[in-house]
Amino acid sequence: MGLAAAFWIMAVVIIAAALAVVFLRNVFRAALSLIVCFIAVAGIYLTLSADFLAAVQILVYVGAISVLIILAIMMTRNYQRGSPANRLRLPALIVGVVLLGLLVYTVTASPWNISAEPPLSPTTGPLAVKLFGRLGFILPVEIAATLMLAAILGAIVIAREKDK
Amino acid sequence: MNIGLEHYLVLSAVLFSIGLFGALTRRNAVVILMCVELMLNGVNIALVAFSSYIVPQLLTGQVFAIFVMVVAAAEVAVGLAIILAIFRGLADIDINNINLLKW
């Protein structure tokens, strides 16, 4: 019962915050409601008993990505026109609604094999085994590390002031 | 009313569609990146829900969600660097006015 209440509260907060991100004219307020949306998604992870992912969501999204976005908004601040819509508003609305309808239809019409087992309750240790253990995901972890290094170097090179 | 897998999947579909609508209609490049983040979060919710309802003992979906977060962080870093570089050159981040590559 408490889980259902938590899910509905988080769902309403997520959808309201996402709509605010899309429709608010003030870019800074949109970034703040994006942070609210990230925190509510962490709550959704908690109701799915994914505790490690909830912590990572708070650390990475709320802690790092939001700061990057707000930094970018502040550095481009003499662009004061807010976040106007382009001419594609009606076609984009149609595309979004059709995609949403298709997804909801597919999700509700598919027979899912719901497992009867309870989910693992502390997930940190099993996740470490899954990522680094034998027959785990160690090669993707190394590839992700290389990708992060390349992204950091690329961001530095692209954003640097060119000294002439 | 019990919460099942479908609730989480519908929530993730709604979040993805809102992000898609925003990414298609906004003209501010930073807001477009924020909408892409919304879409990635929707996908992550679906992955974690599949993981905890269909294979509760395997955690594969949570591993995928971690990799999605890694790629999202890399994408935001490079994307914001590109936006800053464009802003330095053109003094504008309205994507309707950035048409140097449009033929």
Describe the protein in words.
The complex is a heterodimer of chains A (164) and B (103). With 164 residues, chain A is mainly alpha-helical. Helix content of chain A is 73%, strand content 0%. In chain A, α1 (2-23) runs antiparallel to α2 and α2 runs antiparallel to α3. The radius of gyration of chain A is 20 Å and the shape is globular. Chain A starts with a helix and ends in a 5-residue tail after the last helix. Chain B has 103 residues and is an all-alpha fold. Chain B has a single domain, classed as Orthogonal Bundle (Helix Hairpins), CATH 1.10.287.3510. Chain B has helices spanning 5-25, 29-53, 60-90.
Tally of individual helices of chain B = 3
User: What is the CATH architecture assignment of the largest domain in chain A?
Assistant: Up-down Bundle
Tell me how many strands of chain A there are.
0
Tell me the span between the first and last alpha carbons of chain B.
55 Å
CATH architecture of chain B: Orthogonal Bundle
What percentage of the residues of chain B does DSSP assign to strands (E)?
under 5%
Question: H/E element string of chain B?
Answer: HHH
- What is the makeup of the main sheet of chain A? none
Structural class of chain A: mainly alpha
Shape descriptor of chain B reads elongated
- Largest sheet of chain B, described in full? none
* Average pLDDT of chain A: 89
